[in-house]
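User: Please fill in residues for this 152-position structure.
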């Protein structure tokens, strides 16, 4: 990205944020872009050793999502090819805390992940549904995930 493209992108983002106000909350475990009139929440898990910040930069949907009243929760949970029930429960508890503390609605939740983050999204979504957790997603997606180990 050139300097001019970067400046233009920042200008457009700031302009859209003025039109569609967003709360930006940074925590060591996540980054949340909460739309003022949020109607849904998208939870994203990063690939490999990526962080919430890197995922946000590589998967630039924040402005479009928040302009459409969708809050985005970028998780800093990485380096997990798969997760067991104990980790699923811990993540479930963490998400419930995040949703409660940030007053996010639990009715329209979508969970996704990139690469191994997709495996986490898939396993966690399954756990949330099997255990009737109130943040069980309406939809789950994975992008370029190595799901073969999960199929055995």
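Assistant: Residues filled in for all 152 positions:
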């Amino acid at each position: 990205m050139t300097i001019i493209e970067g400046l233009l992108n920042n200008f457009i983002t700031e302009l859209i944020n003025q039109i569609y106000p967003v709360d930006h909350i940074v925590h060591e475990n996540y980054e949340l872009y909460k739309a003022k009139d949020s109607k849904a929440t998208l939870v994203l898990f990063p690939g490999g050793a990526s962080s919430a910040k890197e995922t946000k930069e590589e998967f630039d949907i924040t402005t479009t999502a928040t302009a459409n009243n969708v809050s985005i929760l970028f998780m800093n949970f990485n380096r997990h090819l798969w997760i067991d029930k104990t980790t699923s429960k811990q993540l479930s508890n963490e998400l419930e805390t995040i949703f409660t503390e940030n007053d996010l609605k639990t009715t329209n939740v979508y969970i996704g992940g990139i690469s191994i983050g997709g495996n986490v999204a898939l396993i966690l979504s399954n756990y949330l549904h099997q255990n009737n957790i109130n943040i069980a997603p309406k939809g789950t997606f994975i992008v370029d995930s190595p799901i073969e180990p999960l199929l055995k």
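For context: The CA atoms of residues 126 and 132 lie 10 Å apart.
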